[in-house]
Each structure stands twice: as structure tokens, then as C-alpha cells.
Design a protein that fits this description.
alpha/beta; 13 helices; homotetramer; Rossmann fold; Dihydrodipicolinate Reductase, domain 2; seven-stranded mixed beta sheet
Chain lengths: ~325, ~325, ~325, ~325
């Protein structure tokens, strides 16, 4: 049984706590949150110790690994201290909003970053993972065009946008990682943005819709379409098109019920409302992969380098948006 | 070019006239309807001669074949006279509502009935025909269970029910023929009926919903579900289940548009409203098969015997409904 | 926390053990199985006590309720002793294969049977339950025709057939209960059976495919189609048709992936393989409903009477099969 | 009855001839093709006069309108002469490959170009047209993102690529027009291309895959994905996403048959193979719209200006591809 410490007991921290509890190979030993009430609530639900500072967890040699689910600006500090104390780390994305700080962290830690797994949970969604695996078997031949559609149900408050790093670094970073998951390294990024939804987001200097096109190093193309608002739920689709055919991952519904009436036929219910509904199995599978990496001492995937690469692409998208130019990645 | 005479210019006669006009191998030479206006309207639309009695058509040696689309009680007389004059006949179903009269006709005509094709148009629906053909190739192995759902959009006037022979002989006869198309000869018929829709139909002594189960001579099972009313259109589905899998023919929509909104997702439009929308391609293909039979002098299929067999099953269903017994077919 | 005793640690018992473990409102206190190894394995996995006789569980006053998941012939004895000791009971279907024994049990227990919930898990399948709830809201108006298709992936060994009571009492009993869930009490049952799959099943005197039609007391119709073998998995579908439209519960797939290639397009993966995959959420929801009944001391649903009623229908189907008659339910 | 002259009897000319023949409001009076055999074949099939020069048709005052279906370099000359002789014109796209020539034509003809309808047949596809009409009714609120996927079944011979103007002006021009149909005038064009399919096309200096993003004058975004090869047929899809939901036009299949077997379930047949299968109803509806414009003397839509605008976008896409810049439309 791997003993896990949870750093951060907010919404995403609670998701991870449930994944730990559901695992037969790990247990939640201790949790940290500066808000005592938050820490205590999660600790009680899962029989773990509660702390309002991270030190007791980082210093506890019986704890094998930590999950970093605290606010983004604290990620680098916490993951650095954890790996330096010999712990494995599952770190929520992004590593940091500032690439320079990410690079400084990489310089400092060197090979220690091999102990860090990045929380790109969608790689573990059963449908996306199945498409990826089937592409790898050659079922569609050479993958040539990747189409990703990713829309949130509702725009976040403008305050969130200001601290989250904006659409590219906060929301699209998942899709940029998904593109890398399928296409490998990216050579060129081109972005268009729009402000059609939220005047507050526009006032905060961000876009609320975007289309980004990518070319991989080996010449394959991808499009990512994002919207901060979607009337029918959490729109999460992907299509891999290749020489021999296409594999789509369609949206998912809570039931298989279809209604036919005078106005419309075969109507499915609304799709899953948001990431907690859609990606629960993905978070579980992500944590299991993390435990396997802990058990085997192999480098987890996606790793620190994948977190950095996605941030590079998000920044390139921002630059393309500002300049109207296709950005070539170093 | 085969020269065709049309006997009966009502709704179904007009469907056949359009099929003749669309064919490159046939032309509409003359039409008959006791209502001069009806005859003239169809004749003018397609450049044919109009008659208010059938004799000029039956006597015209330049006419190769006739389509019998007149009221059911006239079918036997017209088809008899036509085949005796050496013409091919495409006769709308049913041959007659009275099996004794059908058998008398068979006695009188003998092998001349080999010139008669029965208008079981659904055998020529591209989807049903494709399922049938793929079953024949062995794609699902031995066909074991056949499920037919067939619902009309709205109940006919009670007056129609009285003259049409009732649900089994008027509506389900198509599905009974479809069952024979897939399963061959039927050994047993069991029927349940209901009166949930139209008090007028109940008053006329007929059911407005029914479920019939069949066992074929070689032991395979089928269910037919009928309703005289369907809120979402003309519900016409079939599923052939066998050892290796299943082939379904789903309902068909006028477009491939799907709508996703806050209440429902992937909603298709209403299906085709009724048989003129759904089965236009079937009527065309049926007529082409008839022309091929004329050209090759081969016995058309479905033939007189298929028309008789479907009527036998419809009568057995009625008997089962009255007696609460499974009826064994002679 | 309700303390639960599990009587029977075979395949279905293990399913129930997992549901108890997943509940936040109950805990698995003790398990019984005559095979010590089976009892110990389940007990260890969930931290419960293991017994090779049921007495220690039935006698333990700290245990609130038991789940009867032992072989069918033991159901009545165990549920009788449990309710007489004041415990709630969740009993796997069927209560017994012999209606006379069921009636004797009812005579003996009287109102004590109100403490028994029957394990008709499909009522709790999220899709079937959603259709049922939407029918209740009037979304399709009066429900008129119910179509149930239910096929197992592979025939059981002939030995199982002999002890299980045959297709109607073993397999279709679930569908007969589903029909009652939608239509209420049933007035008439008509059955057809076939032997197209397994000579061993035929030799054991049972059918391996069947079609049953039902008429409810208020005149509505249902068809149930069963097969002991289905090449594409565990075929579990239902369609409720009414005045204003239809609600279907379609089959369910492990992912939302669709493949398009040169031979076929939009191909979904195989559906769930069998009941453990398809009905895990149903078993969970069933157990939660049982706990709610325990907490509120309300009569659980489905109850003993539902278990008896389904058995009556299964026996009527058997009688109809033997006699070729529609059987009227008392 | 409008009398129609057909200029050009190649593949696309034959499609138009069939549309004229199917119309109840027009007749094919005469056809022209420099290859006598081609002209004669079409003329005979539809009872029209055959010519090997266009003059007899252009000079025939009884001919109301012409369809220009000849090679692209001849379009401007023929449409110019036709409108100057008072005839209506339905001109295949593109008007010309050279924008300067198109502008010279516009200068010369001025308002006479109001008699020209451009053959952007996809606007008349029942599914695309339905999506467009429903967007116009406000069903999805403000349209914000348009996703077009358009793939041909197989790459044309390299020789065709050389004379056709390349992927943007030959193939994507349809999709660029579709974007304008939904979004109105376009402000910015950004293109990425790839060469993953055909070395011959690469050698001819063209791309064989492309992704183009557009921003409309009012700030809405569109993506177009093209491929010269698609294993599963003629991939023609569109999704309009707006404030209140999304409307998709999915691919279309020749039948509604679905197959379920051990390897895959609910498999549809291949989609329509190419444009003759998919767009026959669109060509028919396009021609009917043309006849209506002739009858009412109203300006047909899409018109000469739409043909020019699509060419401008195709050229901008080419420029973006060469420069790696987003191109702003004048």
C-alpha cells in the first residue's frame, strides 16, 4: 500500500482524494490545506490526518508520494520540496504559468523531475485512451489530421480568468497536451481568438473562444476549437483521421435513453455536465498509473517535460494571437 | 420500352404512375379510373390516354402489362382478365379480402398466375432488401429471431377500416409478407390485439394495435408489433438476429441534421411521415423488378402465391385473436 | 451505518459485497458460505467475519439486514429465519422455483414479507429507471406497447439449466418483472419457444430462445424476446411506446469511440459483455434503495409480492408453451 | 416551361442535364460539347438538339437560359456572351482561376452579372440548407463557431491538380463558400497545408491536406479541414455552434442498416462514395432555385459576387500558406 499525502483540499483535491480511496493499492495518509475546515473535512471523510501546513507531510518519511492540488503559484515550491525528500509527485497542471520559472525548476531539479507526473487526466479517459491505443496499433494507418473540440459548460468568473493565466494556459493546455499525446512534438502554432460570450472576460484581456491549428514536427495537422460556454454541457470530442479511416471519441451521456416525439426523434439526454462527471474514470485511471510508476520506480507519463511542452504551446498560441503570425516552436 | 396500362388513379395509382415515368425501360400508355377527372389528371401529367372503363386498356394488344391499383374488390376481376389477354400484372395487395375467392381465382387461372407480381413494395426498400441480401450471404449465420415494428402515423377513418378488411389484412399483411420474405413458410401464428387509440375503430369491430408472433416451418421466431398511430411518424423498423450477430434497418430521416441544446442532444428530425415519403425508392425498385420480369418472361417475385400466403397468415392472426389459441397453418 | 450480513459468497454474492462496500451508509459485518475458502476470501477483502453456517449471522442482533445470495432452494428458509429475527432481507430472485412453496411461505410470514426486497436489479439500471420515471411524468402519454429484448452472451451449461428452473424462471423472470414494472399487473401470457442454439439445452427439456407476449390488466401489450446466445454481448434493450412518442433504452458500450473505415462506418465497440459489466451501477442503486428502506422502515420495492408475481408469469409462460394457448392470470 | 441550353456535356454537365429533365418547370432544349459524341449522347438521352459549337444555343432566342458546365477557362467567355444575349446563366464554380479576369468580367458586365447564378451546389444540400435555415430562425442563438470537414474519397491525378488551380481554388472553394453562407463576409484567413498523401501532388506544387481558419467581419470563427483522400468515402460534415446549442449535418449513408457482431456493433455502411451520390438532391434543388429566379426575374443566389468572394478567400489561403501569416481581406 502506497501512502499518499494530499496537498490542497479544494475541488480538484477532493477528486484526487476519492481516487486514492478507490484504489486497492494506496491509502490517503494525510492532507494539507491552509483552511483548517477544508483539510479536516477531507481528512475525516477518508480517515487521514489533517494539517494546515505542508511540512508535516513533506517531512513524514512513511509517506511515499504527494498529490499537488494547491493553487498554481505554489506548485513548483511544493513539488521541488517533495522530490528532494524522495517522494513521488502527481502535480496538477500547469506546473506554473511562467515558463521561466518552470525552466529554473528544471535546472535546479534535473533528473529529479523524473519523479513528477503531470495531471493531464484526459490522457486516461477510457475513450481518448482507446483511440490513442488503436492509432498505435495501426488501425487507421498514418494519423494525418486530428480534430479536437473542447468546450466548457459556462464561463468562469472574470476573477478566475485573471489568475488562471487565460484560456490558452488554463483551458486549452489540456487540448494542447492531447495534441502532443497523439502527434508528438509540435513545430508550428497558429491561433485565432474571439470575444463573443463574456464582456468581463474581454475586459480582463482574455478571449472566450479560440481556434488553434498545429503542425507536428513530422508534418501532421491538428485543430483545437475551444469555447468558454456550451449550452448542452461539457463538449469533449476528438477525431483522429488517417490513411485507413477515422476514430472518433464522441460525447458521453449519463444514460442510453433516446426519446422520439412529434418534434424530434432519437434525442439523447444532455451530455455530462462538467469534468467531475465526465472524467471521474479518467482521474481514477490516472491515479492507478501513478501508483504503478511508484511501485515500479519507472518514470511516470505524462511527466514534467510534457507539462513544460504544453505550456510552451500555450504561450506560442498567445503570441500567435497577438502577432497574427504562425509561431515556430524552437 | 414496355407499354404499361394503369388501372386505378387514386393515391397508390399515382405512386405507380410516377414510377413508370421514372423508368427508362417503360412508358405509361394509358390509364383507367371510373372518375373521369382522376383519369384525366394522371393521363395529362404523363402523356397517356385516359379511359373511364378498363376495357380499352385490356383490349389494347400494344400494352404489355397493367398495374392493378383499383379498389380491392376489383383486383381479381381485373388481374384475371389481364393475364388471360397475355398481359403481365403488377397487382396491389391484397389480392382479395376473401381467401375463398383467391383460391377460386387460383383454380381458374392455374399457371397464368405466374404472370402476376404482388405489390409488397417493402421487399424493395433499399434497407430491408440490404438486410435480406446480407442475411442470405451468411453475415449473421442462421437467422433465428426476427423483430418487426410497423406503426402508421395516424389512424385511418373508421369507414376505411370497415372496407379494408381490418388491421391484419390491411396493415399487418405487409409485415406478414416481410416475415415470409425472411423466414419462408410460417407454421404457427399467435395474435394479441388492443383498442387503446380509436373508439371508432373499436366500434367498427377492429383492433388498433396488435402483436403477432410467428414460428416458421423450420422453427425460427418472429414478432410483429403494429400500431395505428405513431406520434413521430411512420415507424418502420426490422431486426434480423442470428448466430453471428444482428442486422437492423433503422428508421429514416429526411436529413442528417442533429441538434444539441440544453434539454436534449443529438436530436434527429422526425422520421419520414408516411409511406409516400419512406417508400418512394421502394416503389421505383419494385416497378423495375416488374419490368425485368416482363423482359425476361421469368416469374415475378413476390408472386400470386405470396399474396395468398400473406392473406392466410392475416386470417390466422384474426382467428388467433378470437380464440386465444396459437393457429397452426395447414 | 447499517450492518449487513451476506448469505452466499458466490458470483452474485460478491457483487452484493462490493455494493455494500461502496455504500457510505452500510458496512459488511459478516458473510456466510458453506465453502470456507469462499467465505474467507470475501470476508478478508472487506474486513468482515467469515462463517460456514448462517446461524451466527441470523443470531447476531447487531446485524440489521441480510442479503440472500445463496442457491435458490435455500432462499425461503433463510429469508424466513431472517425476517422472523427482525432483520431486513434483500433476496436474490427467484424466491423459489416452486410457486406452492412461495405461497406457503407467504401464508407463514404474512406481513413479515413486507421486510423482503427482491433482487430485480434491472429496475435500478439508470437507463431503464429513467425511462420508467419519464413515462410516469407523462412524457409519452399513455404507455401502449412495451418491447423488451434481452439476450445473454452465451448459453449456460446444460447442468445449470436443469437446476435453474429453465429459461422462463431463470432468465426471462427479469423481463417479466420489467414488464410489470412498466405495465402493472398482467392479465394474459402467451409464449413461443425455440431450440436453435444448444442441443444440450434441448436434451434437458428447455428452450434456448423464446418470445412471450403479455397483455396487462388495463389492456396494454408487451413483447419479450429472449435468446441464450448473442454474438455481440449482453443485449439489453427496452422501448416504451405511447400516445406522444417513444422512449428507448439502448445498449451500452464501454467507450464512446466510433470507427469509420473502408468496410463500415461509425462502428461502436462491442456492448457490455454480461451483467457484471452492464449492471454494476444497477446493483449499487438497488442496494442504496434497500438501505433507504431499512432506514425509513418503509416497505421496500420490489417486494415479496413482486417476486411471486414474476414467478406466476414465468409459470404461465411455461404452460402456454406446452398448451399452445394464451394463459389468463387468475 | 423554361428552355435550357447546356454548355458542356462532361461529368458535371450530365448531372445538370438530369436535373433539368427531372424538373417539371424546364426542358433541355439543346446541348453543346466540342466532342460530338459527348454532345450526341446527352442530347439523345433527353431529346435535345446536339451542337459542337455554342453559337447555335447562344443565338437561339427561344432558349431562356444556359448552364455553363464547360472547362473553367471558358466560363467567362460563355457566361459573358449568354448574359449579353439576355439569357440567365447557371455557371459552375469557379468563375475563373484568375481573380484579375473575374474583376475584368465584372467591370465589363456590371449589373448584367445579376443574371448569373454560381454553382455552389452544397448550399442546396437538404441537410446543410436545413442547418442554415434553423440558424436563421435563432434555434442556436448567435452562431459563434463553424466547423467544416470536407474530404474527397481519393486524390485526383496530378495532371488535374495542375489545371484545376490547386486544393484551395478547386476543392476548398466549396467550403469557403459554405463558410460565407453561414458567416457572411470574412475578414481574416489563415492556412496550413500538408503533403502526406500523394508525392505527385507535392511534385505539382500543391498540398493534399489543409486546415484553414477564418474570422468573419463580425468576429465569428470557422475551421475548414480538407483531405484529398478518405478511406470511408466522401466525408462531408458541418457543425454550427452557438449560444443555445449546436446543429450538425452528419454524413449520409445509402441505407439505414446497422450491423452488430462480435468485433463491432451498430456499424453503418460506408457513406456516399462521392459527390454524384451525396449531392444529387442538392443539384436538383439548385436547379429548381435557378428556375425560380428565371421565372421571377429576381437575382439568383448564390450569385457572381459570391463566386468572386470565394475565389478571393481561396487566394488568401494560398498566400497565408506561403507566408505563414494571417491574411486580412480588403
Amino acid at each position: 500500500m502506497k501512502r499518499i499525502g494530499l496537498l490542497g483540499c479544494g475541488r480538484i483535491g477532493q477528486v484526487h482524494a476519492a481516487s486514492v480511496a478507490a484504489s486497492a493499492r494506496a491509502e490517503l495518509a494525510a492532507v494539507f490545506d491552509p483552511f483548517e475546515e477544508s483539510a479536516r473535512a477531507v481528512a475525516q471523510a477518508y480517515g487521514a490526518a489533517a494539517h494546515t501546513s505542508p511540512e508535516p507531510i513533506l517531512d513524514d518519511e512513511s509517506i511515499d508520494a504527494v498529490i499537488v492540488a494547491s493553487p498554481t503559484p505554489t506548485h513548483i515550491d511544493l513539488l521541488t520540496r517533495a522530490v528532494q525528500r524522495g517522494k513521488g509527485v502527481l502535480c496538477e497542471k500547469p506546473i506554473d504559468l511562467d515558463l521561466a520559472r518552470v525552466d529554473a525548476c528544471l535546472d535546479e531539479l534535473g533528473e529529479l523531475t523524473d519523479r513528477v507526473m503531470l495531471g493531464f487526466n484526459r490522457r486516461f479517459d477510457p475513450s481518448f485512451a482507446d483511440v490513442r491505443a488503436r492509432v498505435a496499433t495501426g488501425e487507421i494507418g498514418n494519423l494525418e489530421q486530428l480534430t479536437i473540440i473542447s468546450r466548457d459548460p459556462a464561463a468562469p468568473p472574470a476573477g478566475y480568468v485573471e489568475t488562471s493565466g487565460g484560456l490558452f494556459r488554463d483551458m486549452m493546455i489540456h487540448d494542447l497536451d492531447m495534441a502532443r499525446f497523439f502527434l508528438g512534438d509540435v513545430a508550428e502554432v497558429t491561433a485565432l481568438g474571439s470575444n463573443l460570450i463574456s464582456p468581463e472576460i474581454a475586459a480582463a484581456g482574455d478571449v472566450d473562444g479560440a481556434v488553434v491549428t498545429l503542425r507536428s514536427v513530422d508534418g501532421r495537422l491538428a485543430t483545437i476549437t475551444n469555447s468558454r460556454r456550451c449550452a448542452y454541457g461539457y463538449d469533449q470530442r476528438l477525431e483522429a483521421f488517417g490513411e485507413l479511416g477515422a476514430l472518433e471519441a464522441r460525447n458521453q451521456h449519463p444514460t442510453s435513453v433516446r426519446f422520439s416525439g412529434a418534434q424530434a426523434t432519437e434525442s439523447a439526454p444532455p451530455i455530462h455536465h462538467f469534468f467531475l462527471d465526465r472524467y471521474t474514470p479518467a482521474y481514477r485511471a490516472e491515479f492507478e498509473a501513478f501508483v504503478t510508476a511508484l511501485e515500479t520506480s519507472e518514470k511516470p507519463s505524462p511527466g514534467f517535460g510534457d507539462g513544460r511542452a504544453a505550456l510552451v504551446l500555450a504561450d506560442a498560441a498567445g503570441e500567435s494571437l497577438r502577432t497574427g503570425r504562425t509561431i515556430t516552436i524552437g
